[in-house]
């Protein structure tokens, strides 16, 4: 149900802002790049918990740096026509990408837990 609501919302916004397609697509692209890089760095904390705070701070700074650099570049190159459309697209797709990345990580964790349970039922243990 959540995915249907997200899909309908994205399509509705795309249709509403079709007049300012450049602004919408730049906001969408910048959100994907910033959030993806941030999560790639942040999820490294799972593998190295002793550096978790460092990874989270670096991830937040990376997202901020990519966003600020992208916004400065977009405004200096005069690519977008509507700052409001850009802002709405960036905010919407930041939330959407965050939702999908969280769902992906939860599904990966569930699959890992199921595989480990199967190993425990056989009496064998997984060595890491």
UniProtKB/TrEMBL annotation:
Keywords for the protein's UniProt record, in alphabetical order: Membrane, Transmembrane, Transmembrane helix
Record bears the keyword Transmembrane: yes
Sequence intervals crossing the membrane: 28-46, 53-74, 80-101
Keyword Transmembrane: yes
Protein name as annotated: NADH:ubiquinone oxidoreductase subunit 2
Taxonomic path: Bacteria, Pseudomonadati, Pseudomonadota, Gammaproteobacteria, Vibrionales
